[in-house]
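OP here, attaching both records as promised.
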Amino acid sequence: MKQLNYSEIQFEASKDAYQLSCHYLKLKEGNPHPHASGVFIKIGEEKFLLTAAHVIEKQEEDIFIGIGEHELLRLGGDLIWNKAPETRDKDRIDIAVHKLCPATVEKIGNKYKFLDINELGINHKFALSAMYQSVGFPASLSKFNRVKNSTKSKPFIFNTRPAPKEIYTLLKCDNFLNVIVEYDKRRIIDYKTGQQQIGPDPYGISGSGLWYIPFQQKKEGDKLDKKLVAIMTEWPIENRKYWIGTRIDVFTELIRNKYRLKIEQSKIVKLNISNL
């Protein structure tokens, strides 16, 4: 079987990440419109959907996910998110966790995959290298077809690297809570052509996953190594060449403390859930 080079490994990993990611939709005048993104995970027998707090706050009854071209599903279960210190614009945590009820899990069926616990990048040490990837659903790449009564959600796959330490100070982020990655929309490489192009504004990508894809020796059909290391939350107005995300440790510590599940404890993040 063919040995994969690293760019091929990244592309294959992105296809797997796509199956683990959902596109949140909102109804406007009875028609679905793009809203945000999320990532499905599984811990033991429990299943969750992770996203950003601003995606669902005060909108939990208005958002859906697609489970096919013609069917929307409002998710049931226990939904929690952090409280903003002042406004969401100043919130650098911005996390939401939806513990899905059995009826919702049954309805989802095999429409999506759920990430296994051993693929959560808890205690991940970020390297300043282009081994990171985001998979989400920008609003500008999604279209509703009124004739066919269907929504096409086109994913945006972007390879990137973490920003240097001085950018964290500039954007008022903490590297034990956040990760900041580069995003120069004018220098995006198209997967199919290899040509440079202008990327989309990342509105709608809030809640998407940031994946670490290490160098590895793999052949076609092999299971690829990847880790979910953050959920992306913000395209900062202070500098539009970066994205801000929240470390996966913040999510897993919330889940571990709230639901008493067996998860590796973070050595990076200490979370007091009473303050959330």
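Record two, same layout:
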Amino acid sequence: MSCNITTTFQHVSQVGYTLLNSELESNLKSYLDWGFLGIGGWFNVEIPTSGAFGGTFDQLRLVDDPSYSAGQIWETARKDWVWEDPVPYTGGSPIAITGVSIDGTFYGTGDATYAHHYNYPLGRVVFDSPLPSTSTVKLEYSYRNVQVYIADQAPWWDELQYNSMRVDDSTFQQTSSGNWAILANNRVQMPAVVIEAVPRRTFQPYELGSSSNFVTQDVLFHIVAESRWWRNQLIDILSIQKDNTLMLYDSNKLADSGAYPLDFRGMVVAPQNNYSGLVNNTAYQFTSARITDMGVTEMESYNSVLHEGTVRAGFEVIFS
């Protein structure tokens, strides 16, 4: 009996290429974003759209962001706008952003009068030149009901924003204090799911004479919500996905081709490259992942406005 001796790593061709843990996390975020859209998981904001207790969701607030000049950044109360088009839901469609209203006049996307672009993840309109702080900026858009994060991209344990639906809050229009004082990229609005690949992995040989393996990797879905209903709903939606099989896209091929759906500004450049578009394109397919196990490991209600739960899932892939 003999075995092949090698002096190099197997199954790894480049030290900078994303491997299993990060592939799972990024794919699962895309999958959940797409899955929630498939069950109507967004809210359309038209002009006007009033809040339950007053205020309006269509009016934007001025943001004091040190990376930009004062007056350039205006944002909505809820971030994470829907950019996918079309969405897999028969009960309606998200609003496609076509322009912005400034002091009662509508300016279409691409209008040079008030040149601007949109940052969909952060829920911002970014103007090339500052607007006066007294301007009234309004927008029609759609935001996701459930925000999904990857653990190392969201310091969610100390950046949760409460009452993000309360556009009647007097601090909404304040730029340096109050509930919205923390910049959007550091705020996690609830309900939210935070994805974390954890150090629990098993291997099982795939076939004789091969170094390929069935790899089962555990992933935690941390759920935070301001109501028991949303916490319970998200635990149920996620846990009943047991035995579902997903196709994963190869983020290395995606990066090499530059086929990202959003550019570095958060602006939509290829809406067709959503989760479904990528995994159904053979040029970007990586491997399939079967959900072999699901378990609810924690459910806590710390107070009347913070409810938390954790779902642990096992994902089996063939790694070769």
